[in-house]
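Exercise 7.
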Amino acid sequence: METIQQWDEALFIFLNGFHSDFLDPIMYTLTQTYPWIPLYVFLIYLIWKTYGKQGWWVLLAVGLSILLADQFTSALMKPFFERLRPCHDVLINGMIHNYGKCGGMYGFASSHAANSFAIGTLMNLSLAVKYPKIKWLFLWAVFFSYTRIYLGVHYPGDVIVGGLIGVLAAYLSYKLFFTISKKITKQ
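Solution. The predicted structure, written as tokens, is:
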């Protein structure tokens, strides 16, 4: 486990090193929610266009997947594992680039990664048949997650595990809501 943690720290220092004064405020802005509101509105439009009135089932599944992913990472994992964020770790603090605020004390696993991968996965499960190019949302999730490493607030392992949790939360939510909606619409 110690070797994995050392690899994670070394990869973090490498990836965190790709910063510039010009990109810092841009990456900080892009790790927030509000710049992505047009994307979310566009996804809601695609849901409505694909499912019509039944699209609210997809929106409920999105809500549940984000709730599951966020609460599992924030309320359960972070206090249980108590892994310091890189920006709070005094052993590497002088070697890293931290821009903006550091966030809470613990960072394992990344809620940003969990939430973005939950959205990407659920949109792919729901929309890829009609819109196969929607797979680009996974690139968005990777980029959104990388901003956390860039800003010095998460290790790559935090992001990878958070992403996996998001995928799982989305899959479970999708299965639950689409099973329920099929049963209800048959009645």
